[in-house]
Amino acid sequence: MRLLTIRSLVLFAAISMILSVTMTAQNTTAMNSTTNVSTTDNPLLAKWEGPYGGVPPFDRVQVPLFKPALEAAMAEQLAEIDRIVKNPAAPDFQNTIVALEEVGQTLDRVSTIYGVWGATMAGPEFQAVQREMAPRLAAFNDQITQNEPLFKRIEAVYNSPAKAKLTPEQQRLAWLYYTNFVRAGARLSADAKKRLSEINQKLAGLYTKFSQNVLAEETDQFIVLKSEAELAGLPQSLRDAAAAAAESKKQPGTWVIMNTRSSIDPFLTYSDRRDLREKAWRMFVNRGDNGGEHDNNAIITEILQLRAERAKLLGYPTHAHWRLENSMAKTPERAMALMEAVWKPAAARVQEEVADMQALADKEGAKIKIEPWDYRYYMEKVRKAKYDLDQNEIKPYLQLEKLREGIFWVAGELFNFNFTPVTNVPVAHPDVRVWEVTDKTTKRHIGLWYFDPYARPGKRSGAWMNAYRNQERINGEITTIVSNNSNFVKGKPGEPVLISWDDATTMFHEFGHALHGLNSNVTYPSLSGTAVPRDYVEFPSQLLEHWLATPEVLQRFALHYQTGKPIPQTLVDKINRSATFNEGFETVELLASALVDMKLHLAADKKIDPDAFERETLAQLGMPKEIVMRHRTPQFLHVFSSDGYSAGYYSYLWSDVITADAFGAFVEGKGPYDKSVAERLRKHIFSVGNTVDPADAYRSFRGRDPKIDALMKKKGFTAKS
Ligand SMILES: [Zn+2]
User: Fold this and answer.
1) Would residue 393 show up in a list of annotated catalytic residues for this protein?
2) In this structure, are residues 218 and 296 in contact, taking their beta carbons and an 8 Å threshold?
3) What is d(CA 662, CA 543) in angstroms, rounded to the nearest whole number?
4) Global pTM value
5) Within the chain, which residues score under 70 in pLDDT?
């Protein structure tokens, strides 16, 4: 069993844009059947069959199978737990903790596929199943953590003198179970437990509603462009995408700008029409904040109150204190201190960026004052003027499939991995491809890597990693299955897909999560791979981003799609010179979100009006008026679509500090391909999962705690003394 508290980390850990909840879709496979599936022939309940220790039966999924499968799997897990509780033998590590690790395997399998459908194949029929099952899954989880005799056994093992004889990994697992149960309310009175469970179910329903509201405003609102004049400035690729969007919105002969980040950001970057930029910007930043049936403000107030009440019930001053207890930061105060240290230099940098943009606008005779809807537009112009760098110049060298070969090559250099394509396993969609990962020297099977690169209806936006099965060896070696997912637009047959430098960086990032899973070398599934604290999990992935810009990768894999020639050094120099460009904007938009998130969850049980709170908090911070939060409160899915990143959005910055510091170990050594540093990285970071406290693991790798200096230097900010 992976407890939901642990499991949610695994599921969401690697996700840069969270949400397992909802998505639009035209995908209506298996609609309108009220099939009565008996549990004996529900394929979702069966053990995974086939090669590599079994693989997910994606070819046998039908939406009506999910509910009966989840119900049967929950019932099975409760029966398994009952057997542990009724064991007449005195509780010990084997008959309690290990036994718990082994229960719920059916539910793990079902919910893995349920999660894949939620993220990549979610039609309206599936969304209805989610609305029904979310509160029930929350209640199920409480039923386990509130099982008193079960907790007594865990507590007995945890407090037993025999614990000292266990291995460090076993002791940590016992601690994790104990602390997770306590944190979930195992010690509360019966009345308090009942109230806690009510709160959790209520929250699960509110999270689903919050997500579905954001989705509705992203789907229902869009901008229709009707003439050449309204397309001014847009490159051909954007016009093509807008024309395709118009088809899907049944607006033939027009161009449609959708209300999603991947549609809005490029429009704000390139559109010469200031009036339309303002309109697009307002539409996007007001998602969930428009009054009416999809307004999220009242939902947020309720979520915050319930979270505050729950924290109090559990004995914590605030939700933030509860969430951070087992993180690497440990306390909200430490997370706040980091954010505040970075905020001032970042905000100061924004003033310089705005001054550059204003000067350029004045020189052009634009007669404007830079507003938020001008930022990306003038930023791009400044980039060209200052560094002679045009993003569109880089793209022809960044072919999706060549870069995929590049990440394989890097994994070979750092971790001795080899990738071989396989075609004998089922996939959820024909676009998904699978590779077997083996050790280059010993040929040992390490795991499977699924790659689902293209956008389609029913797939949520963004890029993420997901583990379908965790490495473990309680009863013999179980190998891992991991996947990387993204939303590139599929090219015409035979045409290479060209991607941006940012997208290439994201590819390396997500692959870093996959490598974290593939390197896992632990005994117990709850401690495996990416099941580490939230503010540590982005470290391996952010670290991998550094290898894209190495000459070894660029010369071999950044090849022009027509000439096959590697990217010229002059262009690489320009990219490197502009590395700290726009860091003010990027840091401030992220930090503003992280600070508002933390302050919302430090406000205890004060009744909060989200709009006013956001406005006042940003004013106190001195938020530059030319920038808006990356995720405004009414659309902040990381924070309000689950407990996921609540009081945890700071994690990106926290991991950033560790990442920049860690790469320094390579720089101080023989460079990015230094085999001895790579071996230390594997040994202390990528292979240990959550078997070691992250701060200790890092110290073993680096010989000291992380310092903030490397990050400040990387961002081009003056380091604080
Ligand atoms: Zn990530």
Assistant:
1) no
2) no
3) 8
4) 0.88
5) 1-39, 719-721
Q: Which residues have a Cβ under 8 Å from the Cβ of 591 and sit 6 or more positions away?
A: 339, 342, 343, 346, 653
Structure tokens at 717: 């900010």
pLDDT computed for residue 644 by the predictor: 86
pLDDT reported for residue 648: 95
Token look-up 């078997």 returns: 691
| Gap between the Cα atoms of 150 and 91, Å rounded | 10
Residue 489's pLDDT is 80
Instruction: Report the SS3 class of residue 422.
Output: strand
**Contact assessment for residue 517 and residue 446, using Cβ atoms and an 8 Å cutoff:** no
* Euclidean distance between CA atoms 500 and 350, whole angstroms: 24
Report strand pairing: 433-439 vs 445-454. Answer: antiparallel
pLDDT of 25 reads 27
What are the tens digits of pLDDT across the range 484-531?
Answer: 999 888 877 888 999 989 889 999 999 999 999 999 999 999 999 999
Distance from the CA of 661 to the center of ligand 1, in angstroms?
18
Question: How many Cβ atoms are within 10 Å of 543's Cβ, its own excluded?
Answer: 24
Backbone angles phi, psi at 468, to 5 degrees: -85, -30
Taking the alpha carbons of 549, 581, 657, 591 in that order, is the dihedral positive or negative? negative
Q: Name residue 172's amino acid.
A: R
Tell me the backbone φ, ψ of residue 77, rounded to 5 degrees.
-65, -40
Q: What whole-number distance in Å separates Cα of residue 235 and Cα of residue 227?
A: 15
The alpha carbon of 12 and the centre of ligand 1 are apart by a number of angstroms equal to: 9
510 CA to centre of ligand 1 in angstroms = 6
Strand partners, 438: 418, 445
Q: Quote the pLDDT of residue 34.
A: 39
Report how far ligand 1's centroid is from the alpha carbon of 411 (Å): 17
One-letter amino acid at 463 equals A
CA of 539 to the centre of ligand 1 (A): 8
Q: What is the pLDDT of residues 132-181, one digit of tens each?
A: 998 899 899 989 999 999 999 999 999 999 999 999 999 999 999 999 99
CA–CA dist 558, 548 (Å, integer) = 9
CA dist 388 and 575 (Å) reads: 10
Centre of ligand 1 to C-alpha 538, Å, is: 5
Distance CA 35, CA 38 (A): 9
The answer to whether 71 and 137 are in contact (CB under 8 A) is no
Write out the residues surrounding ion ligand 1, Cβ under 5 A.
16, 538, 541
Sheet holding 417-422, edge to edge: 417-422, 433-439, 445-454, 480-488, 464-469
Q: Tell me the chain's radius of gyration from C-alpha atoms.
A: 25
Q: Calculate the dihedral angle through the C-alpha atoms of 202, 204, 207, 208, rounding to the nearest 10 degrees.
A: -110
The per-residue b/e assignment along 158-197, b for 16 or more CB within 10 angstroms, e otherwise, is bebeeeeebeebbbbbbebbbebbbbbbbebeeeebebbb
Length of the chain: 721
Say how many Å lie between the CA of residue 644 and the centre of ligand 1: 13
User: How far away, in angstroms, is 658 Cα from ligand 1 center?
Assistant: 14
Run of H or E including 272: none
Residues 6+ apart with CB under 8 A from 51: 422, 424, 425
pLDDT digits over 655-664, tens only?
A: 999 999 999 9
- 3-class state of residue 564 by DSSP: coil
Q: Which residue is catalytic, options 125, 217, 510, 614?
A: 510
Rounded to the nearest angstrom, the distance between the alpha carbon of 17 and the centre of ligand 1 is 8
Measured in Å, residue 342 CA sits from the centre of ligand 1 at 21
Q: How far apart are CA 135 and CA 378, in angstroms?
A: 46
Residue type, 27: N
